[in-house]
Amino acid sequence: GDTASLWYGANGTTRYAGYPATAFSKPSGATGSGGAIVRDGAVDAPCSSRDEQPRPRSAIAWDSQGNMLVVAIAGKQFGSSWGGVSVHQFAGLLKQLGAVTAIRLDSGTSTTLWVRKTIGGPLVRLDRRSDDYEREVVDAVAFRAI
To answer: What is the pTM of this model?
Structure first.
């Protein structure tokens, strides 16, 4: 519904072992992405063997009225053999939620969803218990009410 403004910013330098500093010293995108998985209301997911593995997933999607959905699927808990979905399963779920367009964000252990349930309230982790392991990541998508 409401009009939103988008701001993108990056600061600092990230360096990965085995890569020269210049390879990752300047951001080249806002976040890791696998591209669109729902287009014009149809599933348009890739079919690689990695995409068919059940993993944590995250996406931003839009319904036919332009409402945005931010969706995360939690993965395996430590010591568990269940959790996550394939890219096709995720795209199907997004369609069930009303998505006509959806782009996937980074997946795997970097998938985490934190929200503030009230303005100024504490951050609450939704994808699993807040005291569970959380991998350090170099980028994120954040929304702020103004």
So the answer is: 0.70
